[in-house]
User: Which sequence fits this backbone?
């Protein structure tokens, strides 16, 4: 979505995204460590009771009072934080609870092209249709909680209280938009209603420049909510992964082109390839020992694209020979070598005073960048 919020009246530290060393467990009727912050006068989805946030600044859950804040995000008037709490000062906001639609959501691009807080994967159930035109949506809810559905990745549905019965055939939409039938035993279903994009809270991506050559990425919810999601390399425009080369803002692996051959029959002009997934950020060459084991990586700038290439490699006899290429890959000349020191540096800091602490990456001024791995 992982783009996110401009700064509020709190310090930008108020949105620092921290990573806690335990997993999220979703279960029906079990202990779910994810907490929902209740809105003023709104039913808390965890306890089922109506609650009003405290108005003092005494120690308690983040965002509980005017002077208290979660270092990973903040609630708005409608979107309430879903967060992990590990001890004093150790919090991590994960996503939001839409208190109007009663669904867990995260910011992503909606069908109208806008950034909106859309139901997340754990909230989605299957949507089928009772007719061959795929115009009568129905849902068969299994599990717990209030479920939403999604069709073709863009249109969201929710069940109504109206029941219907299916025939021996139901229908579902295919990726190409066609309506495919399948056989089923007659069952009781709930009529579903489509929700327009405007029903979901609008968000706006914002960037905050940092002192170490990076930009922190935020999203602002129109209701006053906010969340920090990560950082990018300001010069290269690529997302930061601080774990691949520890403490350095390094592009993620999916943006690497791999040096795998040469563009000429003398095997003197290196070529890098990347699967057809967008423009690469870097060319990577892995050095190997005589036994073939990895022994470090060298990094290079990306050169010009090679269309309809003939790629050459050295065979077992060290002879430069042509090798077939694949239409599934893009090929590029390899540019100048890049020093690891040219990638922005970040510091990993710990927060909290309990037995479990929060960890996050910060710039040279201590301003938040993104969570640790």
Assistant:
């Amino acid at each position: 979505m992982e783009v996110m919020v401009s700064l509020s009246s709190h310090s930008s530290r108020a949105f620092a995204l921290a990573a806690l060393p335990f997993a999220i467990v979703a279960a029906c009727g079990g202990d779910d460590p994810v907490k929902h912050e209740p809105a003023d006068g709104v039913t808390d989805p965890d306890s089922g009771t109506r609650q009003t946030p405290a108005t003092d600044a005494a120690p308690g859950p983040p965002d509980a009072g005017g002077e208290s804040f979660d270092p990973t995000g903040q609630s708005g008037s409608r979107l309430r934080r879903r967060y992990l709490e590990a001890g004093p000062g150790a919090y991590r906001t994960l996503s939001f609870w839409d208190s109007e639609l009663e669904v867990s959501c995260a910011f992503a691009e909606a069908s109208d092209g806008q950034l909106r807080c859309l139901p997340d994967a754990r909230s989605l159930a299957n949507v089928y249709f009772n007719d061959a035109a795929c115009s009568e949506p129905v849902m068969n809810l299994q599990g717990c909680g209030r479920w939403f559905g999604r069709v073709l990745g863009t249109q969201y549905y929710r069940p109504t209280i109206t029941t219907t019965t299916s025939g021996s055939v139901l229908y579902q939409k295919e990726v190409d938009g066609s309506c495919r039938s399948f056989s089923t035993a007659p069952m009781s279903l709930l009529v579903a209603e489509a929700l327009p994009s405007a029903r979901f809270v609008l968000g706006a991506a914002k960037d905050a420049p940092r002192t170490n050559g990076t930009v922190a990425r935020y999203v602002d919810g129109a209701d006053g909510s906010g969340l920090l999601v990560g950082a990018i390399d300001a010069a290269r425009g690529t997302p930061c992964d601080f774990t691949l080369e520890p403490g350095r803002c390094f592009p993620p692996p999916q943006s690497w082109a791999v040096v795998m051959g040469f563009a000429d029959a003398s095997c003197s002009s290196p070529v890098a390839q990347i699967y057809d997934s967008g423009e690469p950020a870097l060319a990577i060459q892995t050095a190997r020992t005589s036994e073939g084991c990895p022994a470090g990586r060298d990094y290079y700038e990306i050169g010009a694209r090679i269309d309809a290439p003939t790629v050459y490699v050295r065979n077992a006899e060290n002879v430069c020979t042509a090798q077939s290429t694949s239409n599934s890959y893009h090929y590029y000349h390899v540019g100048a070598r890049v020093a690891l020191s040219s990638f922005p540096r970040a510091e990993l800091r710990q927060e909290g005073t309990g037995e479990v602490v929060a960890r996050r990456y910060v710039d040279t001024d201590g301003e938040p960048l993104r969570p640790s791995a």
